[in-house]
From TrEMBL:
Annotated protein name in UniProt: Xylan alpha-1,2-glucuronidase
Enzyme's top EC category: hydrolase
UniProt catalytic activity: Hydrolysis of (1->2)-alpha-D-(4-O-methyl)glucuronosyl links in the main chain of hardwood xylans
Ranges for domain Glycosyl hydrolase family 67 catalytic: 150-469
Domain Glycosyl hydrolase family 67 C-terminal: 471-694
Organism placement in taxonomy: Bacteria, Pseudomonadati, Pseudomonadota, Alphaproteobacteria, Sphingomonadales
Single Gene Ontology BP annotation: glucuronoxylan catabolic process
Subunit structure: Homodimer.
GO (cellular component) term, any one: extracellular region
Ranges where the Alpha glucuronidase N-terminal domain occurs: 29-146
Length: 716
């Protein structure tokens, strides 16, 4: 007893010292195991007095160490490990490794490798919490779940939790280049220090795996989809293998983006034609080589015939030909091919929003069993808001996986606060009506709507070498929300934001409610000041930093903002109705009718689907022009309101993180006003209407905004 107390006090004292010496820099993410309030410690302690972990695999050792680290930190030390089960023990394991768990006869049959049960039981009158799974990795997920309960101050005395992932492949996609730059990355350099791999294994790789395992992410594509063939050469396979070795015990598999023309570039062949026997043999041999180094290699991600990348169409073959050839190479090893549907061609005169559907729909059912087609959430490109992609619900015989962008290429980079949980939820909850009402995108993705044999969700990572991982503290929430929704696409953004805010900052109610409200409104604020009412792709060229609605001189028509907003003397917006590009017809009939009718389309998508007269009355009673101006202003005021909220939250947040968020919000305020002023200045030259009463004119003339130039913007 005395020893326990002493250790507890010592741990507290050390933590206090460490806390003073080590400022909160965000490195700990949502796994901050700081000591919790005394009354909660007193409540949890009797339940979590000791840890008994059955099994000695690397994964079980990680689960054990995590529980110890978490409970020691949260409960102020003195949690015993590997003691015989006694009062308040936590018992972790599989029936195979633990006779005690086996004897309990828990209903684990339908829970797969990754599912877990957490149950409060009594054995011989003593309380026990059992964290049980069929496989060690499930037990690890359960351990993280148990810690989350304490981190968010949930009761743990009478638990009966059952959790299995609804989606099989829950992957991050890193757009990381071999020179350590990151395409659309705003958090420093690539986390992969390629040059020093495979010899130097940065401890950060372990922390990365730990963070991902804590939210159920089970795979990572290491390199950019705009891939270099070099990543498939022996030295680079060795680097990937070193990472795979670190990630394996955390249940994370490594995947690689494959360059379609690699057989020519590094294989010495004259062609990369997917029907050429030599090309097929080359890929098979390459797959064999990779699997020798990485026995659990996940497979390939491919961007083909898109934005200049090579692909099967270069040889007059189809996407299915290309995907199936690679699928054949990895199939003997259990690998998959994720073939991206992000395709559009400037040689095709049709609306860019229609092209993925046009190219893929005819091949429904023609892909090999281990191919899954990866579709972006919307039909253009990760805009602040897009209606759901029309392919969802349209490919019943081909597994489709979701691709979200966690990094904020089009939402203000790392400095703008935009919680993407609401964006993810909006897409996943959208009803495709493919098989009647309730055919949500979530049901397409979890495979239940069409009975997909493979399911997946990918998020383009926002992780880099920055100390806080994501470039900003609040961007960590987007990584977190992605993982939680990949595990369960029916999860809602608000409870996820709440969990994250509690774990990352504070459990005090004075903090939680206002912080979560701020997060929940944040993405809509960005939509308001960048792309209100369904406008899209108005960002400046190349780097996509700041407004560029006037841009009309890029090499391809569909890279120009004017292609998307189509503002003219009569009105603004892209007519995608039957009278226009007819993109609406790619949706199931009830959805097509709803989007296609100007009276039923939601206002938030209005200008995505309709070219609308400047004087049309909106729900507010204002004309479209006045509404547009009002929305831009509302966006700027929204940021100001977040600034005020954040100032009020200062008492709950450590000075270092508070200061950084406040500074970023000031940048966001400045840039939101820039967006408003530049957009209004430009659109007013076309609408030729006065600003509504009370709306301040733009600070500068349009020419001033047009002259701005950012040659060194990041991520490009
Ligand atoms: C990796 C957009 C981005 C590109 C990205 C591409 C893609 O066009 O701007 O940087 O390339 O999407 O998703 O392939």
């Amino acid at each position: 007893m005395f020893r326990t107390l002493f250790h507890g006090l010592l741990a507290l004292a050390l933590l206090g010292l460490a806390g003073a010496a080590r400022a909160e820099d965000g490195y700990d993410l949502w796994l901050r195991y700081r000591p919790i309030e005394a009354e909660w410690q007193a409540r949890y302690r009797p339940v979590a007095a000791s840890i008994v972990v059955a099994g000695d695999s690397p994964t079980m050792r990680i689960a054990s160490a995590e529980l110890k680290r978490g409970l020691d930190g949260l409960l102020g030390g003195a949690v015993a490990e590997d003691q015989p089960a006694g009062a308040g023990a936590i018992l972790v394991g599989t029936p195979e490794e633990s006779p005690m768990i086996d004897a309990l006869g828990l209903p684990l049959e339908s829970m797969g490798r990754e599912g877990y049960l957490i149950r409060s039981i009594r054995i011989g009158g003593k309380p026990m919490t059992v964290i049980a799974a069929n496989d060690d990795v499930g037990a690890l997920y359960g351990a993280f779940h148990f810690l989350r309960l304490i981190q968010t101050r949930q009761p743990i005395e009478a638990l009966d939790i059952r959790s299995t992932p609804k989606v099989q492949l829950r992957l991050l996609n890193h757009w990381d280049n071999l020179d350590r730059s990151v395409e659309r990355g705003y958090a420093g350099q690539s986390i992969w220090d390629w040059w020093k791999l495979p010899d130097f294994k940065d401890p950060r790789y372990t922390d990365y795996a730990r963070a991902n395992a804590s939210i159920g992410i089970n795979g990572t594509v290491l390199n950019n989809v705009n891939a270099k063939a070099d990543s498939l050469t022996a030295p680079w396979i060795g680097k990937a293998a070193a990472l795979a070795d670190i990630f394996r015990p955390y249940g994370i598999r490594v995947y690689l983006s494959a360059r379609f023309s690699a057989p020519i570039e590094i294989g010495g062949l004259k062609t990369a034609d997917p029907l050429d026997p030599q090309v097929r043999a080359w890929w098979k041999a390459k797959a064999d080589e990779i699997y020798r180094a990485i026995p659990d290699f996940g497979g390939f991600l491919v961007k083909a015939n898109s934005e200049g990348q090579p692909g099967p169409q270069d040889y007059k073959r189809t996407h299915a030909d290309g995907a199936n050839m690679l699928a054949e190479a990895v199939a003997p090893h259990g690998g998959v091919v994720m073939w991206r549907a992000f395709v559009y061609s400037h040689e095709t005169p049709d609306d860019r929003a229609k092209q993925a559907y046009n190219e893929f729909k005819p091949f429904d059912g023609r892909f090999a069993d281990n191919v899954i087609v990866q579709v972006k959430n919307g039909a253009i490109d990760f805009q602040p808001r897009e209606p759901f992609h029309p392919l969802f619900g349209a490919m019943p015989k081909t597994p489709l996986m979701m691709e979200f962008q966690i990094t904020k290429e089009y939402l203000g980079f790392a400095t703008h606060l935009a919680y993407l949980g609401t964006l993810f939820e909006e897409t996943l909850a959208a009803d495709t009506r493919a098989k009647g009402e309730g055919s949500t995108v979530a049901k397409v993705i979890d495979g239940s709507l069409h009975g997909y044999r493979l399911t997946g969700m990918a998020g383009v990572a926002n992780i880099g070498s920055d100390r806080n991982w994501s470039g900003s503290h609040f961007d960590q929430a987007n990584w977190y929300a992605f993982g939680r929704m990949a595990w369960n696409p029916d999860m809602k953004a608000r409870p996820i934001a709440e969990e994250w805010a509690r774990m990352t900052f504070s459990n005090q109610q004075g903090f939680v409610s206002p912080a979560v409200d701020m997060m929940m409104g944040s993405r809509e604020i960005v939509v308001d000041y960048m792309t209100p009412l369904g406008l899209h792709h108005l960002m400046a060229s190349g780097h996509h930093y700041g407004p560029g609605p006037w841009v009309d001189d890029l090499e391809r028509a569909d890279w120009n903002p004017v292609y998307y907003h189509r503002a003219d003397a009569a009105g603004i917006g892209f007519d995608r109705t039957k009278a226009g590009s007819d993109a609406v017809s790619q949706y199931a009939p009830p959805v097509a009718r709803m989007f296609g009718d100007i009276d039923t389309v939601p206002e938030r998508d209005l200008l995505w689907f309709h070219h609308v007269g400047w004087d049309r009355r909106m729900a507010s009673g204002r004309t479209l022009w006045d509404e547009l101006v009002a929305r831009y202003g509302r966006g700027v005021r929204g940021v100001e309101s977040m600034q005020r909220d954040w100032t009020r939250l200062a008492p709950f947040v450590d000075a270092e993180r508070h200061r950084e968020v406040a500074t970023f919000l000031a940048i966001q305020r400045h840039e939101a006003k820039w967006w408003r002023d530049a957009s209004i200045a430009y659109f007013q030259t076309i609408s030729k209407r006065p600003l509504p009463a009370g709306e301040a004119p733009p600070e500068h003339p349009l020419s001033w905004y047009r002259a701005l130039n950012f040659p060194f913007a990041p991520g490009h």
